[in-house]
Specification:
The protein has 874 residues and is an alpha+beta fold. The chain is built from 27 helices and 31 strands. Helix 2 packs across helix 3. The two termini are 15 Å apart. Arginine is lined by residues 141, 143, 282-283, 285-287, 320-321, 343, 396, 399, 828.
Amino acid sequence: MSTAETDAQIINPEMPDVPPHAPSKINLKDYTKPSFDVETVHLDIKLFEDYAQVDSKLEMVRQTAGDIVLFGESLELLTITMNGKALNTEDYQQEAGKLTIYNAPERATLDIQVRICPQTNTALEGLYMAGSGDDTMFVTQCEPEGFRKITFYPDRPDVLAIFTTRLEADKRYPTLLANGNLVEAGEVADAPDRHYAIWHDPTNKPSYLFACVVADLDVLTDSYTTSEGREVLLELYAKSADIDKCDVGMQALKDAMKWDEVNYGRAYDLDRYMIVAVSQFNMGAMENKGLNIFNTACVLSSPETTTDARSFSVKAIIAHEYFHNWTGNRITCRDWFQLCLKEGFTVYRDQSFSADQQSSAVQRIDDVATLRAHQFSEDAGPLAHPVRPESFVEINNFYTTTVYEKGAEIVRMIANTLGPNDFRKGTDEYFRRYDGQAVTVEDFLSALSITDEKIENFIDWYRQPGTPVVSGSQTYDSTAQTLTITLNQQTRHVKGFDAPKPLPIPVATALFDKDSGAIVAERMLLLDEATQTFVFENVASEPVVSLLRDFSAPVQLNYDYQDADLAFLLKHETNGFNRWQVTQMLVNRILLQGQGTKSSPDVYLEALAQTLPVLAADDAMLAARLLDIPSAQELASAISKDYDPVLVKEQRDGLYKQVADKLKGQWAELYNNLPMQSYEDSAEARGIRALRNVVLDMALTANVDAAADWAQQQYDNASCMTERFGALKAMVNHQLVDADKYLADFYERFQANDLVIDLWFSVQAAADDVTPDMVKSLLTHTDFDWNTPNRVRSVISAFSSQPTVLWTAEGLEMYTGVIQKLDDANPVLASRLLQVLARWNTLAEPRRQMAHEQLVDLQKNVSSKHVLESLESV
Ligand code: ARG
Ligand code: ZN
């Protein structure tokens, strides 16, 4: 703080302890209970050509002393009455985002009328219009604080109420949906073009789970009978052109319903479950009670238009939102600091569900790869925060990979520490104790610790930011026949937090006999001090130690391995995940160790050459993963100082080329052993397609003569999008002569399908030879649309995967220009895109200075608290 501001504070003690323009922070420690509860809410939402009127009736009951506090944003207040009497201006006060009613009695019935404008709501929060021309629909996104853009309300997750919703609109929107059960529908008297529907949700819920839809949609219908005998109507709503892409999602929903009954004893609790697909959506999907709203990209799937990876994630997201019905909806969060309570647990649940749908090793590989690429990097940078943050300016900025993915890792550590039986006892206890309540992370841990009180110690994982680094070494005593492993942990001290404490870190460990390759001992070591030693008895000869098996904790591991040990483990590890982990360690040693001390790639290349051909025939998906070399972007995230994007890319591409060349003689055989077959959605078929795409790219990299022909044939004869897009991507990235011709063909074939055109944009924006000018021309393409987040991401997020272009004056100017443009229209999206630039301060000069200047400039030109908070550390 400057002295001028300090002086101002002395003169005026009311002055807040922040610079005058800085948005204010909300703190966990300031939590207080609401003074009023809401028993029932009646909403009447009437949509007109260019506005909507929302009438609400709230039955409120006093809980503690204090005023009634309602939140409201972008609302035009028409009338407000309490217990039938119009409020005078001295009875209430309206200020920035808040309406306070003084002197309320024990029970208060509030009648409020507001006018809103969904047609101009580009932020996609609250009630907004999606689409354009005569193809429009109205949908809501209320989590976390969108409901206050619909009406004045105690919009906080610890206020639970019973909602009844009446929707009224023109008949050209035949689909009128809200949470719960349909009670009534009909014509509007005196308005022959209008109709209405009334929905009633019998469950108590916070306002962030409210949803409604006014649209013209087709529906795919199915049903499910729960383990409790409830007959549930399942409906998936989409535009008529997309209704043929709803079967995968519907099947996933039924699978998820069954899975939750079997694995957690949780059955669905309403008579109807609806999912609606919308093309303009800030996030993936939303778990509104009985009425999920999904980004089209996260629910629509068909072999011709959707890659296998996408389709697999559609299933996972359907499951995720369904699982929220118990972990999030029936038991919800006391306040938004507890976001990880529902998200971490629900991500853990959807990851476990997905692991049952494919090889569990591949599932773990993909989850860990995501964690390492995104969460570790967030935790290492200026936006690092605890899984349960202690303060925020804008909660939308905290829907992060730390809250979600690291949150899931904590639940996983707890589950693994307890073992399946005790974990199930704990979750049963959690559901028994807290059903219908809004609770905290402490409550969660307290229920899970009924069989083992040490589980409560995991609370520090929620409080402390930073990725722990576990280092270790071993000594073998041949006389005593003991192996001693010494491990220590260290977490960086993040500015603004207490000095880090040692955390409970489960380290799954196995000892391998060097001669036979067999496992001689297996143990879960619990490292919960700064340094600890663990002794294994009766070890006949010095073994190779495999640590952190299945990635038993979200930490970085530095163990004093020889390259040969890792090569040994690649051969002998029994678990597919651990084999992949070993390849990643080898790659990191080659690419990332301090200058001069890098490992030579020989051991890695030799080990791959031996492993790959065998594995390809055995488990194609795993074989494809073993060829992973982290992207340049991901490698950068492990560099804390003097990051040179050009150098990293050169080295990364260099190693990739070495792998391609090393196996040059084998690509043709591998490729030909993976023939294209008619489409099948099995783990095996997906594995073959994945490996074929990797092999194709490798062969092109190694300049295998026939490879360009393979690419064209694969494109022309593709049975599905995975094959077609894999070929197209390879042609574009390797700048094959016909790439443009194929790009044009792809565009023409799929012109009518937005999600495929997103792929078309992204393959160009992420191309190896992309330039800022090419991106600019994509941004002015007739199909580009600033109001569709999927389209914006298809260019901007895709482009950010090319650090050598992003981190140039021109690249950054383009990128920050986009943020500035979106700052006002859609601050949630703007802020998320901006987070990619958080690691600017690790760049080597002169880029660092240049990036800093551009971010300072950006700071002057933006006004949303979302974006300003993400720029706080600049
Ligand atoms: N609860 C949703 C999910 O994870 C995410 C919604 C977040 N929306 C937002 N605007 N931040 O399933
Ligand atoms: Zn979620």
